[in-house]
Predict the structure.
Amino acid sequence: MTRIELTRSLFVKNTLKSRYPQLAVFIVMLAGYIFAVLAGIIGTPVGSRNFSIVFVWIAWWAILILVAVPFFGRGWCAVCPIPLPGEWLQRGAVLNPPEKKPKWLNLRWPKAMRNIWMQNISFLLLALFSSVLLTTPSVTGIVLAAMLFAAIGLSMIFERRAFCRYLCPVGGFIGLYSQTAPIELRIKEKQVCVSCVGKPCYNGSDSGYGCPWDVFPGGLTRNTYCGLCMECIRTCPHDNIAVNLRPFSADLAKPSARMDEAFKSFIMLGSAMIYAGVLLGPWGALKDAAYNLGTGAWFFYAVVFLGIIFIVMPFLFALCLSRFENFNAFKKRFAALSTALIPLGLMFWVAFSLSFVLANATYILASLSDPLGLGWNLFGTANVAWQPMLTSVLAPAQTLALVGGLVWSARTAQKAANEVKVSSIPVILYCFMITLVMFWLLL
Amino acid sequence: MKRPELLSRILITAAVLGAIGSPLLFRARTPLIHARIAENGGWNPDVIQADVGEPLHLRLTSDDVVHGFAVGQMDMQSVDVLPGKVTDLTLTFDKPGIYTFFCTRWCGLNHWRMRGTIEVGDSSSDPQPVTPPLYVSLGLDIDAPHNAPIIPAQKPSAIRGEQLATNLPIYHFIETYRSHSPYQVFEELNNSALTESQRWDVVAFIWQSNTTAESLANGRELYAQNCAACHGENGAGDGVFADDLKAAGEASAQNMAGADDMTMQTPANFTDPTRMLGASPALLQGKILRGGMGTGMPMWGVIFTEEQIRDLIAFLYSFQFDYSK
């Protein structure tokens, strides 16, 4: 497949190689993040008027799901502030080369947990509490702070970015969907890596740190676990790392075969549908159940939520696999075919997010001028009236996203089915059915 | 340490301190009065200091639903306090004293508990002499039932009463209106030649003669704003909060003072002739001034002026009497 190497441009390469542009973005992001924590905790408890809710769950989420993930894959991870304090402490430096002797425990992450199940769980935990989390500034502030401290704690105990790689609730799906993005970081020549002595891209050198994501760039075949932190560009002594522009969903041609990732697909599809029902649907009792944490209704909601994601959707999907000869072959086919759900899941989230992002975008202007809801008017936009944006294009855009997602998934299903030598038709039918449900929920 | 490393550490520290410090600083420099439903704390702060003749600037915000703000016994338009927005307000007090501010939006079951005080000037220096309200000088027990043993068969009509009253020395009753219940006046008319229903009509006329159309209209407005939430728009004790009050009363009765308290939580029904025709204006004034003491009925003495209470009482009787011309 054709690829355009962006790092051929000297400007791009030097910008990525230098630590300063990234550091500048990091500082702004970290300050914004800490500001959001403070705003959530001490600002107005009215969500639509609080920086933490408006900037995290409307502005950041819109950028993440509508721009960063579809076009840049793990582009967000490249500038995310959450791991930074921990990482700087772990290294004992911001820019200086790493010390030879590790400052902290520097343990390896336990082998049994080298998968994204923890991320599946952390996402679901937030998802089950989301109606409170997404609307209550203090809860958002506390959760943001907790993630920052969790990342610091894990950096003290484990090597590299254990939080990003194994615990971050959003990192899991960003990784899954980054496979569809038209950007990738790859090596240029395999042979160069094979003969490279010391593998500084993984082990670090005076010019940079060993891969924070615990990935050996020489073996990269898909975007899932590459955080685009650009360390390997800095450390590679042979200038063998490239950032490429490539066709969309290039990674999905060769399906992955991991159950944790397969279930991530179901989690994301299922939660997009349930959110659409809870947040955009007309069912008051459902909203109440989702909001009243700890009540019987909420437990029932949680059981249904988990039941749909872990039982109903995977079971129906398993029915599409036509035959069952032995468990291992079945598992492999299940995971391989689930790659077909990746583009669909992304587009479900795009379609769902469009509705609340466009509806609430005007809050961003108001919150910019009065981030804590204290009656300030920093930029003269504090009194911008709430007004849904682009209402006329919302439904067509959502339709386009869902239909596009379905077509994209169907094509992915054909490729995946080809790999494991089964018919793709049941999987396409499955995608078609759940797309219909999503249509009904959204439009 | 190399210079870039040092510089970046300084920059990061400055950015982090700025991100922590700026919201704390701005919050500290923006004192706001926060409104929350009473269950979550009501007004915060709920005591405000002010000086006589000095403009008092208030910045109000709501942390939950729409509230309203007004100061009792003061000629001011109430303002809305919206969630997450700030309402600016300037008040000037002519006289020292302790003023009560209160919520003017039906924000929740305990809406009426949302009150605070503004202490103007030095309130300890020579308190104004107060005349005790009529119910005190009459020695009325406003918590005891004052039911009318006889009630009219149909709604008494002031217009019919006017024709009948021409032969009666009704000016006497006008003077005693405030201290007498309709039933007492009805009883005092028993030596006249009138039938029972005619006597009730005369009572209706006397009550109407003691008020004006303007006073009734003002009372109607006050009632709609402040009373109808519990007592109902039509006075039947069935306002939007009535059911919740009853439920709250029943819940408290199960673990507190016993079943007798349950009825206390039910808002009074002004369409009930037994209750209303046995109640004198002095009694109603007492109930409004002092409130229900442990029931849901708030104390209005600090909020309504004497004229407002008079208008309100006049309006309350219109649930019993037909004042139409």
Summary: The interface with chain A takes residues 1-2, 4-5, 8-9, 11-12, 15-16, 18-20, 22-24, 26-27, 30, 32, 59, 61-64, 83-86, 88 of chain B (CB under 8 Å). The longest strand of chain B covers residues 56-62. The radius of gyration of chain B is 26 Å.
